[in-house]
Records
---
Amino acid sequence: MKKTLLFLGVLLAVLTACGPTGKYADVKSAMDKMYAANEKYIIGLEKATTARDCANVINDFTNDVVVIIPEIKELEKKYSELDMKNNAYPPELAEYEKKFEEQSERMQKVAMSMAKYMMDKDVMAALQNMARSMEGK
């Protein structure tokens, strides 16, 4: 679970942005998509009242993110100077760092609240699927 949260945080940092303009307009666009997917995930988990709800939210998030991952990989190749995995935001993207930090904190809190469902077979399967999907397997 910690690896998943760390990966999501990193992914979140890579993709954060608003109003795609300027040199990194395509990066900002991808970051907006990831931010939206994360928001949907957080809100879904906040509203989940059963293990099945939780598993459905995780599966929906996975489906949303696997579409964005190839775009991110291409952007990482295109902009090799970016090192956002280590929170090294260029000035053009620095404003999004705080946005994703705040979201990451919320994500961690909601992940803790779903701990009661972690031993459920559907939730475990959804988390395993998410991990495999994000690794590209």
Note: The mean pLDDT is 83.
---
Amino acid sequence: MNLHYQNRILYIFLLALGILIIGIAPARPESWSVFRNCNVRPCTIGVAVPTWYEPGWSRISTHSDPRAAWIRACSLHYNDRGYYSPDIANGKIDCTKLKTGNIGRGAGLVGPWTFGRVNGPVLCKITLTSKRGSQGYILKGCHPNESFWEMRGANLLFKHSDGSVTSRLVRRNSNYWEGPYLPH
């Protein structure tokens, strides 16, 4: 009986130790956000966890990992004169070394966008991902017409789940694309 009692104490001690170890393990953020401060010109941008707060800063996009957030920040830094990242400018973040798969010129598009009619309502919040699917890169949207995306020349194509092209968009500025719906 005494041996059983000692084993029980050892088991409870190890269980408590295991819980303690698990309880103190650092949590990995599930998402990362691009933030901006437009109290200065050009707007200063950076990447942090979504709960980060500093007066004057606002979140402009959220991504599944820091690489995707920095790809978005790099796109803004290099393609929009209104944005500047000290971390990119001083070489702390090297945009040329961020892995983007084979997306190429579309790498800066990865992340959340709003999708709607010109001068009309927002139809859906979509996310262009860097994950390959059967018909292109996966587009997380609200309708099968917007299931995949790809860059073809200067055009951003949205594709139906069957692979047919449903929208051919042309860049109007760094954060705005426009084009017709293509019935399939």
Note: Confidence is low (pLDDT under 50) at residues 1-27.
---
Amino acid sequence: MLPLDKLSPTAEKALTDNGVKVDDIIIVLHLDLDFEGNFGDSWLCFNPEKKVLYRLGFEPDPNAEVELVGGVSAGGKKIKHKVSKFVPKVLKFDYLDLNLDTDPYVDNFATSNRLLFMRHTTPAPEIPEGTPPEEAEKIMEPWTKSAVTV
């Protein structure tokens, strides 16, 4: 795995629970935004052999509570408080098949760092080796124009 980020135990478990072999992932990127571009916790994980970009999104578990004990009241009793703690749980798991979902990029200029990509209905047409660039562009044009930004 390239030294961008290292998977947290929670993210690693979420991947393996969804049938992903962690050893096949070569790049991991930890983001501080959710899938909608709000502050949150998400991961991008790339498997080049399958040409798949996995996305994991986490949110705090609203039912997780921890008891904090601190301070002493005027009567000498310990003060107990229950507070919510960020205990991550998987919010979303999905993946992009980079044979159909192409040109992924994180738009961090006009938006809130959302992952955008072009979605195609078919894999890219085969371009025979040695095809002149102008001809290759004509072959690719209908495929490129039929894609939508997601």
Note: The chain has a mean pLDDT of 79.
---
Amino acid sequence: MNFLSGSFFGKGVRSARVAFRDLHFFALKIESGILKRRAVVHHGLQRSGTNFLLLWLSWNRVSVLNFRDPARDSPRHKHCRWQPEKDGLIDPIKRQYGTGHYAHTLDELDRICGYKNKPIHIVIIKEKRAWLESIANWALRCDWFSSWDDVLTNMPKLEADYSSYVSFWQKMEVANPDRVWVISFKSLMDNQLDLIEGLQARNLGAPKSAEVFRVSEVPMSPAVRNKQISMHQIDSYFEARSDNLM
């Protein structure tokens, strides 16, 4: 088993960067209909591993139609909130990320986005508490919130965003098992070979079946960062709740 290691911008990922560049070429050809190879669209909440997912897909030569991030309010954006429950979103998400888009079916979603030939939608989801820790730290770095107390005030909205987003895509997967694939961030970290089998079963890309993709950091996720909020604080928040929701 071979491992690719190194910084995203460093020598260790030269092969991945070449694949990333090639991916864009293939995505454009597929979207135009020149190639008949099946493509994917990737989705996920902020801080769920979407950038690593995109690099992993490119490493396995999977063509991703929303390869480049469009405007944040575009329905093609990987963070677009398709779920119907949008009233409870925190204000920065409401202002920035595609909260005016709705789709009751996958065909309707593809039509709104202009996707042709029924691509496969791959959705990455991080475990709830891990995501809350990540998004809380991200929110503080982005000045969405000013303090832990501010995070606590907004925690119900973050939970509602997570739950409604996950529910939307899980229902889409049940209704369209051949066109929606929900994967976990943990599986992408720990069980890539199983996911490669999933790519092969869906006839996607040209997976490197004997290789596991690793980089020390990816865009927007530096290896060394200051975490103001710990998992212990997130766990304490849940322990203090009378209903102890998971």
Note: DSSP finds nine helices and five strands in the chain.
